[in-house]
Design goal:
This protein is an alpha/beta fold and about 200 residues long. It is about 35% helix and about 20% strand. The strands form three sheets. It has a six-stranded mixed β-sheet with strand order 2-3-1-4-8-5, sandwiched between helices. Strands 6-7 form a two-stranded antiparallel ribbon. The longest helix has 18 residues. The protein is globular and about 40 Å long. The two termini are about 15 Å apart.
Amino acid sequence: MKKKLLLTGFEPFLNYDVNPTQKIVDAINGTEVGGFVIEGRVLPVDFKQSAIDLLDQYKKTAPDAVIMLGLAAGRRQITPERVAININEGPLDNRGYSPENEPIIKDGPAAYFSTLPIHKMVKRLKDAGIPAAISNTAGTYLCNHVMYRMLHHLESTNSNIPAGFIHIPASHELALSKPELPSWPTVHLIEAVKVLIESLVESS
């Protein structure tokens, strides 16, 4: 039986009318990359619902790895995140909710570290000529939220599958309406995500 990888992105949010992570997930959902069959899911930008949808899809899919993607508009590199912290805070989500200094899990650990091979991922990307670096902050918005909730669930259920969050730059399509943003062609973002997935096999 082939391995499965749960790959998630987000819908558009704030004043970004395009979310390249949605385009990536839609493009490779159902395909095979690096020996993994990709199970794609686009999550709502909603503090109350996003992790519910994520964990529901995880339970339905029973994947062998989880990669969550998010847009980091303004970044110029692919940036695997090292850590998720137990805080919700940020601007309005798509439901109109804006938390302030709110714990994600009451009495939960202060933080969880990614279980993806982030150093190997960055090296593999650079070897392929793709700009990349480890990031030490996933912020406190939805990206950090789903990363923390996923890792908390895996820790709570004694699952040791690789899982974590990766931020990507804006796409050219998004930059058409936000010309101040550094941007990449969507096809290059898709190829970068494929390299990330392939690096899981190399590290196993």
